[in-house]
Each structure stands twice: as C-alpha cells, then as structure tokens.
Design brief:
Largest sheet: 5 strands, mixed, barrel
Helix content: 25-40%
Number of strands: 5
Strand order of the largest sheet: 1-2-3-5-4
Distance between the termini: 42 Å
Structural class: alpha+beta
Order of helices and strands: HEEEEEH
Shape: elongated
Length: 141
C-alpha cells in the first residue's frame, strides 16, 4: 500500500517540478497589446475567416491579418503584435488576452486532474492486491 502511494506522490512532485510545459501550457511571448482598427471585416460563415486590421506602433502605421471574424468596418479591437515587425507586408496578429492580469487556471486544474489520476491508480492497485485469489475448480475425471 505504501509503494503505490509513494509512487503517486513522486509522480505529482515530478510533474510540479517539470513546470507548466509538461501539461501543455506555454507562457509564450504573445507580444505587446495594441489597439487596432478593422479595415476589412470577415463574415463568420467560413471556417478560416481572416480580417485585415491597421495599427500604429512607434508612430508608424502597419497592416495586419487577424484570425477572427464578426467585427464591423472601423471597429476598434485590441491585438497582440510581435516584438519584431517587418518593414513591409501584412503582419500576423492575434487577439489580445482578454484576461490580462488574471491567473491562468489551467495549471492548477491540470495538477488536480493528475493527483486524481494518481489516487485512482493507487486505489485500483489496492483493490487488486486485496482481492483474494479464487480457487480453481477441481477437474472431474
């Protein structure tokens, strides 16, 4: 009984020390948030809708493509732009994080699910080890 419990604690400890990348959570550099204006909206009837936006960074106006839909012509949206902007051409931008400053709940949830999985595995091992072996029926000759 102590070995499955120790194995579960070890797995959870190693997962915690491995960091958020183990659970598929990456912090990633999303860039700086900037206010942009939608110049070419896209309807939401296509699966890969892309809108065109324009934004200003360091006094220079850039054009970008936003993977999204449903905004109106001239509507202001917050987007994240990459740190390195190309001199010419459209820049791929993404919607800015709408929960800036809030903690990310995915890591604690992933850890809770991992703890539950370890507990469930330990209980299964306990049930298997505690179940008495059934005697085999005698062969009738």
């Amino acid at each position: 009984m102590a070995i499955p419990a120790a194995a579960g604690v070890l797995v959870v400890l190693l997962a915690w020390l491995a960091g958020p990348g183990l659970l598929g959570i990456t912090a990633g550099d999303v860039g700086a948030p900037v206010s942009a204006e939608v110049t070419k909206p896209a309807p939401c009837d296509r699966p890969d809708a892309v809108e065109t936006v324009k934004f200003t960074v360091a006094g220079k106006t850039h054009e970008g493509t936003l993977n999204g839909c449903g905004h109106g012509q001239g509507e202001r949206v917050d987007v994240s732009v990459p740190a390195e902007l190309p001199g010419q051409g459209a820049v791929a931008v993404q919607a800015a994080d709408t929960s800036a400053g809030a903690s990310d709940a995915r890591r604690p949830l992933g850890m809770a699910l991992l703890v539950f999985a370890c507990f469930s595995g330990g209980m299964y091992v306990r049930l298997v080890l505690r179940t008495p072996a059934r005697p085999k029926p005698a062969k009738v000759s």
